[in-house]
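About this split. The held-out portion is used to measure sequence recovery: a designer receives only the structure tokens and must propose an amino acid at every position. Recovery is the fraction of positions where the proposal matches the reference. Here is one held-out target exactly as it appears in the evaluation file.
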């Protein structure tokens, strides 16, 4: 009967004789299980029978009902401590119209269901379907809500999904004492061991960098996974990292690059801020959002990086020159990173989860104040909405977080809800970023710079296909964006209809 009746509504029933029932009345019927069903009386038949139907259903009840067995009708609805009359007033005068619309499947609920069915037939894409119990099992494993006995799953698909989401190491750590298939456990163990080996190389790199930076009097800050290694994650094999993200102040960038050259690091031929030496790869930043490439991203973090530098902590005890953001600032930086990458990998959501779990009220108060001060309330609300729904970790009930959620539009909730269900959408990050920017001009500029990047960015990010040929790149980009927009319209619409 949605949206005529909504979750949480209470109804006030009134007894009626069969003779006084009319088309459009919302009838209360006792079924064979001695439960009550509330459906609309849409047609009265001879021999004192009637046809009932839920407003949001596409089919009427299978059998006509004897009017004498109708227990009563809804006289009023109590919604949010407000009394809404049904048997008198406007709704009573419109009840025959409601019945006419319901009988022809023209109510809001029926139209929504019909639209969903049409989309599912026309666009039978995997992203519109239930992502399956494998992703739900991964989410339960990450949040620690597992029993020792495992269900029957597509273990190959689960393992591939875990690799793609960057959480295979965490999954092994959670599942090593359960009865998952030995072949799957063995593959996860090998992955875990390879991550341990790579992270040991990273730790050695940081030790050498700390000494070299001290000689040059250059401060550096770890970002993303590197800022959490050996601190937020209890085991080295849990957090996979493809490179070591290091940020330096803009005025020290050239000195830092020269230092890396002297240490034997070589720049990537196409991406100069990537430097590698054997299996050690360093990605050098001057801003957490890479504003040197897309300048308008600076508006997403308008205070710049200086407040983050001011509160930074030593990366670990004994370190002086390599630092990490303090926990509050790191949550805000990771929330921006998560949005920049369209909420696409579970590992980035889990990073935030590891920083906020088991925190006291002092931490949450500090996070709220810092988010307000640095204009990060909306990106933070996106991140915490995901950790709350995926891992049941977030601010206390009845806190400022509820106000954050109240500011989210239905479209924002729908897109975040799709990610919770295991669906990912390309270019979702820039779209969500538009909600975080102040002013129409800033939003248009940001969107243009993101969709149509500068020549230097094209050569770095798209060199395999375009090699800097801007004349061919931009027309192709227009068609690509149009195709993606059309596809994602149906994906998001499907997710919206599902929820």
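Reference sequence for scoring:
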């Amino acid at each position: 009967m949605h949206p005529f009746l909504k979750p949480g509504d209470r109804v006030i029933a009134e007894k009626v004789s069969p003779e006084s029932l009319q088309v459009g009345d919302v009838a209360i019927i006792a079924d064979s299980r001695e439960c009550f069903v509330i459906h609309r009386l849409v047609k009265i038949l001879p021999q004192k029978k009637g046809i009932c139907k839920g407003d949001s259903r596409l089919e009427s009840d299978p059998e006509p009902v004897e009017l004498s067995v109708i227990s009563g009708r809804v006289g009023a609805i109590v919604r949010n401590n407000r009394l809404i009359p049904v048997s008198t007033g406007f709704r009573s005068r419109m009840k025959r119209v409601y019945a006419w619309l319901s009988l022809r499947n023209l109510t809001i609920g029926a139209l929504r269901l019909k639209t969903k069915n049409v989309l599912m037939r026309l666009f039978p894409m995997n992203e519109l379907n239930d992502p399956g119990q494998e992703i739900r099992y991964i989410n339960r494993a990450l949040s620690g809500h597992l029993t020792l006995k495992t269900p029957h799953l597509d273990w190959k698909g689960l393992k591939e999904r875990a690799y793609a989401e960057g959480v295979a190491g965490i999954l092994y750590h959670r599942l090593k004492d359960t009865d998952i298939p030995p072949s799957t456990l063995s593959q996860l163990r090998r992955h875990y061991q390879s991550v341990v080996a790579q992270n040991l190389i990273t730790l050695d790199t940081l030790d050498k960098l700390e000494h070299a930076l001290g000689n040059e009097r250059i401060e550096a800050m770890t970002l993303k996974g590197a800022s959490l290694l050996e601190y937020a994650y209890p085991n080295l094999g849990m957090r996979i990292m493809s490179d070591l993200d290091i940020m330096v102040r803009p005025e020290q960038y050239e000195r830092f690059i020269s230092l890396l050259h002297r240490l034997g690091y070589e720049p990537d031929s196409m991406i100069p801020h990537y430097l590698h030496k054997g299996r050690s790869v360093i990605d050098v930043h001057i801003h957490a959002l890479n504003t040197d490439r897309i300048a308008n991203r600076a508006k997403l973090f308008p205070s710049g990086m200086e407040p983050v530098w001011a509160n930074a902590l030593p990366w670990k005890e004994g370190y002086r020159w390599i630092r990490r953001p303090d926990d509050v600032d790191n949550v805000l930086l990771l929330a921006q990173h998560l949005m920049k990458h369209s909420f696409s990998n579970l590992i980035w959501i889990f990073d935030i989860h590891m920083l906020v779990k088991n925190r006291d009220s002092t931490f949450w108060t500090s996070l709220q104040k810092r988010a307000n001060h640095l204009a990060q309330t909306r990106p933070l609300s996106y991140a915490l909405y995901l950790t709350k729904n995926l891992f049941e970790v977030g601010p206390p009930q009845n806190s400022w977080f509820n106000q954050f959620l109240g500011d989210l539009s239905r479209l924002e909730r729908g897109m975040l809800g799709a990610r919770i269900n295991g669906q990912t959408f390309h270019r979702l990050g820039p779209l969500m970023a538009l909600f975080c920017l102040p002013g129409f001009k800033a939003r248009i500029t940001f969107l243009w710079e993101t969709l149509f990047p500068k020549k230097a960015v094209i050569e770095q990010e798209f060199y395999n296909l375009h090699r800097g040929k801007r004349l061919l790149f931009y027309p192709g980009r227009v068609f690509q964006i149009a195709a993606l927009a059309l596809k994602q319209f149906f994906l998001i619409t499907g997710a919206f209809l599902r929820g």
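Annotator remark: DSSP finds 20 helices and 14 strands in the chain.
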